[in-house]
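Help! Submission page says 'invalid entity' but I think these are all valid:
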Amino acid sequence: MSRPPATAVPATSPEAEPLAAHGLWSPASVPVRADLAIDTGRAITHARHLLDTGCHGLAVFGTTSEANSFSLEERMGLLEDMLASGIPADRLMVGTGCCAVTDSVRLTDHAAGLGVKKVLMLPPFYYKGMSDAGLYRSFATVIERVADPDLRIFLYHFPRLSGVPITAGLIEMLLRDFPRTVVGLKDSSGDWENVRMLLDEFPGFAVFPGSESLLGRALEKGAAGCITATANVNTAGIRATYDALRAQAADGAAKDETMRAVRKALEAWPLVPALKHLIAHYRGDHAWRAVRPPMLPLPEEEGAKLVAAVEGAGLQPLV
Amino acid sequence: MSRPPATAVPATSPEAEPLAAHGLWSPASVPVRADLAIDTGRAITHARHLLDTGCHGLAVFGTTSEANSFSLEERMGLLEDMLASGIPADRLMVGTGCCAVTDSVRLTDHAAGLGVKKVLMLPPFYYKGMSDAGLYRSFATVIERVADPDLRIFLYHFPRLSGVPITAGLIEMLLRDFPRTVVGLKDSSGDWENVRMLLDEFPGFAVFPGSESLLGRALEKGAAGCITATANVNTAGIRATYDALRAQAADGAAKDETMRAVRKALEAWPLVPALKHLIAHYRGDHAWRAVRPPMLPLPEEEGAKLVAAVEGAGLQPLV
């Protein structure tokens, strides 16, 4: 896997607009040790590898990062360690949406205070069936309390896991009152109709499908890029496809087909342990297989099938 | 509302078996101030009132307590303040189940260290579709790390909100390895068939339906009691029914009918703000209406309808 040419970075790269986000972002996997604590060394090595091999940025502490399986202190500690290691604040988007609004304020304020102004916010996700007005009040409380004019919030729509959809009505309310702060959304619904609706209804809003399988169609309609779990292992393949699609290159369709085949193969396994298994496999580093409960590592025999399936679909082995 | 006679406390009261739980437990509502912080004074007054007017115990930091809307520090702080005010540790069951296993360990260890050995544990509730083996590993990690032989865990089954059911298979696994620690379950599914199955399959397991509407049928089959949100306002009514049903008193059926009518009336409104509205109304204390986002207080006009509905159904005004 070679690093894509520097010219492939679009003009709207983080370097050009430090508060914006475009392109391929990966919710970086977070390795844990045998005692379940975050393995900071491996986490930083992996994060750097993703940035060096094609990711425009990292959505640290998303679903694939097992964010909600770590305490606030663990999450803040890893962010501090990543920045201290030299990972640029502009290339991070930190997950800060918690069930407790005070926790969301604390994580958001912590990130912004460290110069990480882009955050990916789940709605409060324990209570279901909450009104848009109540969800608005939750996001507004975070924005008002953090009170940072440079804060940029990307809403995180993942109804299958959160059980709390981000509706068009809620987005309208937030854009009306916080147009500079609420700037985009990660759509992990897997529903093209929802992605399309967002792109149609909210021009200029930075919409990221949560899967590269929708990338082609989404880019055509003006999506900002994609934030996708599988970028943890298919970094170069997805980045090359992204670049080819944006450049309307002749090989875009073929690249897109392979990329989507790899995704489809991966989806036959539970995604978080599957990605960790693949990282462990290609790095020859068994420790990477560990996950936090309630997840379990992929059994070895399943892992072997997984490797065969994704390579059969066209995944280039990681280096 | 008068305090029930002391003789109504069953022989298996907390006083007799400090690590057990039986009877009527209330997931106490937690008042918040205008700045959304916990209103400790009002919280303690309300908790004492519930214990003085009929609750055998309090399930502090359950769903009705807006537990997941508060930070760990806020939850631990209120528990410490309640104990310092003289509320007996034996009459508390603390919600300690979080998404992050380290958080569940921290809350459980904190409670047990203060002498509050009974905890009500949600499964980790962000990830959906987790295996029983993965959920087992999560609960087992808490039990192994807290390592308190007096710890008593009541599992919290609330699939509509958690999205993560506690299955019979998971209970079997836990009972096999931790028979002294995992002792019961609050079933908030509202599904009588599930309550019945638990009572049939796990004799001796302390099953509490999450609603008094199932109390009569559940007690007949050996349930431990009920843990119910509406005990925040219909304390005396539910306790009197519980006592009458247990004593097979002649007026049990009539009491049960009124109690269930009050519950049914209440269920037409969102339960957490509705209960706070009623407490505010009967105490003449407007501050009680406040809730944490993503909930919103009941609008005044809805509140007036609610009061009329529950009184029409037979709720005795609180004193």
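Support: the input was valid. A stray whitespace character was the problem, and the output above is from the cleaned input. Confidence is low (pLDDT under 50) at residues 1-14 of chain B.
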